[in-house]
Design brief:
178 residues; mainly alpha; 92% helix
């Protein structure tokens, strides 16, 4: 970071073109102009290489900023997707719980109704059974009485008929014997 800002400051004040175009006055007791020019050419080449490297690094930084922004957007989208998925899962669980509670409640209610119907049906069947038993006993008693009456009639008729028959026979014999 420090190198980058230093290079920017230098670039603002100096660049390869400025170095190349810089003119120096010649003085008598100065440096050898060819040697200085040769050194400046090397400095220019090094400076151009640094400028190229800085441009390349700046391009990479920009590219990385774009990638970082893209990844940040993807991260945000993933977070939102996870939140949405969690909300959906929570809603599904809540709906499933509510549905299962409703099914259980309906089943319990239906079981209570069926149990009540069976109790009522059982009571009705017991009542009808009791009525049938009572009716059976009444019918049996009535049939027994009718049978007894018929037997009495038969006994009475038989005895009476026998007596009548004996009487007729006697009359007949009396009539025939005479």
């Amino acid at each position: 970071m420090e190198l980058n800002s230093t290079l920017r400051r230098m670039r603002m004040s100096i660049d390869a073109k400025i170095i190349l175009e810089k003119q120096f006055e010649t003085v008598r007791k100065g440096y050898d102009a060819l040697e200085v020019n040769k050194f400046l050419d090397e400095v220019i080449e090094g400076f151009k290489a640094l400028e190229d490297k800085v441009k390349k690094l700046e391009a990479e930084v920009e590219e990385n900023k774009v990638k970082l922004e893209k990844y940040s957007e993807m991260e945000e989208a993933l977070k939102n997707s996870i939140i949405t998925a969690q909300k959906s899962a929570d809603n599904l669980l809540r709906d499933a719980k509510n549905r299962s509670d409703m099914i259980i409640s309906e089943a319990e209610s239906k079981a209570r109704r069926m149990q009540e119907e069976y109790k009522n049906s059982y009571a009705d069947i017991r009542s009808k059974y009791a009525d049938l038993v009572t009716s059976f006993h009444a019918s049996r008693d009535e049939i027994s009485r009718n049978i007894e009456m018929q037997l009495d009639r038969l006994r009475g008729t038989s005895i009476q008929s026998l007596e009548e028959l004996e009487s007729r026979m006697s009359t007949f014999e009396n009539n025939h014997d005479q």
